[in-house]
Amino acid sequence: MKKILSVSLIVIIAILGLCSHSYAQYTKLYDFDSINGRFPQGSLVADGNYLYGMATVGGADNVGTIFKIKKDGTAFAKLLDFTGANGSLPQGSLISDGTYLYGMTAIGGTHNEGTIFKIKQDGTGYTKLFDFVDTLGEYPYGSLISDGTYLYGTTTSGGANGTGNVFKIKTNGTAYADLYDFPGTPGGFNARGTLFSDGTYLYGTTLGGGINYAGTIFKIKTDGTGYARLYDFDSIHGSEPHGALISDGTYLYGTTFKGGINNTGVLFKIKPDGTGFSKFLDFDALPGTATGSNPPGDLVYDGTVLYSMTFIGGAFGKGTVFKIKPDGTSFSKLLDFIPAVSGSQPLGSLVYNGSALYGMTNVGGAHQYGVVFKYALPAAGIAENTVDNGFTVYPNPGNGKFNVALKDELAAANYQITVYNVLGERVYSVTKSNRQPVIELDLSAVLKGIYFVTADDGKTVHTEKIIIQ
To answer: How many Cα atoms within 13 Å fall on the side-chain side of residue 458?
Structure first.
């Protein structure tokens, strides 16, 4: 009994510390549905007005879609339904040259082994540039990069050794070249992350292989020469890297999905010549812990701090948004995903535009098919926790009966008031009509503990923590 009580206290203390941040900075821009796509696994790409992305399944033929949406959440438009013949199950992200969007599908096409395609930003001009097949590579997972003439990418399978390859192709679909065939164990295989280029070398990772069978970091010149394996992961320093490498000019930074002290992933950096490897964060193992677990995507760098997400972990066990300095200090969790409210379990990366982070979750939201979201960053010198949350709850702590008082700017709107437990399960819900500035909540039948009250208008979610004594 003492052991159970001590664990409960630890979890409660952790949640109290973790969930002090405000959800007022979070805005849900879109809930995916079956027709327009669902379960996105990639990331968004932004221009001045729109965000562009892909959903892995859903759409007319249930094999994925391409879409765009304005940064304020309006004007959602489905640009393409994948059909199988033109590609199926896109799992990476799009890139843009200002006129065309370029991307890949994991399967589909003539040989059902994946495709490379382009499409105009208005949804016209779809062109299949390449059908993957056997020794030329199969089943691409990551995204393309471009130098203006060529597109570069990797596959998870196929090639001369059946373990994936590095390739390039011109943006018009000609001059496909297999630059390197991964040799398998111990050399490396199954490249899943997007490549990074410094103009001379392409840098990337493999999910498997290496002398410890935990994945590798490699570089190769854009003409296919100069391949070098820079690092072999192991269980302590990380394993199964998923995301792309990024650079601050001195170091390459990245994530692993597993490995580290808790086998839930790490953040690392390494110099481009393969020296100076350093692990600067071990992710936590249990739901309710500080950092979240298993980062699935890329890091984003604003010149001062790195931003990213975790797939699971955090207060509700459904993933987090976090930031950290490149030297490993000043870790801060910005958001805990709440399954039915904010989406959950992201499988892609964030996009940074100077004042906000944009991203997608794989599941959660109104239909449990994932969401597009925005997280507004505070102006310099303003802490995340100081954002006005829009309403107060009193008395708090309380005996089960609470009042939710919405501030003037929210009192005239229609809101869904919902109460969640620490596992993200809904325990109470009521709709607030306009001109009703105070809502009474009767939670006297609910067990004592920590809960979260949300006011959700379908776009912006405001959240406050309450305690039932």
So the answer is: 7
* 111/133 Cα distance (integer angstroms): 6
Ordered by where they begin, the domains of the chain are 2-386 (2.120.10.60), 391-468 (2.60.40.3080)
Strand 196-197: give its sheet, edge to edge: 196-197, 201-206, 216-221, 228-232
| Whether the Cβ atoms of residue 441 and residue 9 lie closer than 8 Å to each other | no
8-state DSSP, 216: E
Length of the chain: 469
Distance in angstroms (rounded) separating the CA atoms of residues 201 and 376: 35
Cβ neighbours around 409 below 10 Å, total: 9
pTM (two decimals)? 0.81
Q: Going residue by residue through the chain (469 aa), what tens digit of pLDDT does each one get?
A: 333 333 333 333 344 344 444 467 899 999 999 999 999 999 999 998 999 999 999 999 999 999 999 999 999 999 999 999 999 999 999 999 999 999 999 999 999 999 999 999 999 999 999 999 999 999 999 999 999 999 999 999 999 999 999 999 999 999 999 999 999 988 999 999 899 999 999 999 999 999 999 999 999 999 999 999 999 999 999 999 999 999 999 999 999 999 999 999 999 999 999 999 999 999 987 655 568 999 999 999 999 999 999 999 988 889 999 999 999 999 999 999 988 778 999 999 999 988 899 999 999 999 999 999 999 987 654 444 444 456 778 888 888 888 887 766 555 567 778 887 755 667 888 877 666 677 888 888 888 777 878 777 665 667 777 888 7
- As a whole number of angstroms, the distance between CA 206 and CA 215 comes to 5
Residues 420 and 446: their CA atoms lie apart, in Å, by: 11
